[in-house]
């Protein structure tokens, strides 16, 4: 069932952005579906792969967007982004399938996290 009241959808979306304990999220990239624990996280490269911090903005009607991040990655195929509570370790909060991207050499992938409560 979809939530009919826009302010209720926004309240739920605002609760989502706080799942990590703050209105920031650490964004990761994954080479396959990370499941519920964040497996298959990218690694390696030069500059080395690292999660990037994004900040959620408040939206309306149940929609959130976070700041875009640029993630350095080694050659490979990347299929998912993940959300974490910390730059290393931390708690895996959620995942999203992205357009599968294959890089033949070191490169960068831009990720703009978003969330829509229906």
Automatic annotation (TrEMBL):
InterPro entries per UniProt: Gp80-like (IPR056908)
Superkingdom of this protein's organism: Bacteria
Name listed for the protein in its UniProt record: Uncharacterized protein
Lineage: Bacteria, Bacillati, Actinomycetota, Actinomycetes, Mycobacteriales
């Amino acid at each position: 069932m979809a939530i009919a009241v826009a302010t209720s959808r926004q309240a739920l979306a605002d609760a989502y952005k706080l799942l990590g304990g703050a209105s920031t999220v650490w964004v990761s990239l994954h080479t396959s579906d990370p499941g519920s624990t964040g497996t298959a996280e990218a690694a390696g490269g030069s500059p080395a792969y690292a999660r990037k911090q994004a900040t959620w903005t408040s939206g309306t009607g149940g929609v959130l967007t976070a700041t875009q991040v640029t993630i350095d990655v080694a050659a490979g195929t990347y299929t998912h982004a993940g959300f974490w509570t910390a730059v290393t370790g931390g708690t895996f909060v959620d995942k999203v399938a992205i357009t599968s991207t294959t890089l033949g050499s070191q490169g960068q992938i831009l990720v703009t996290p978003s969330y829509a409560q229906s």
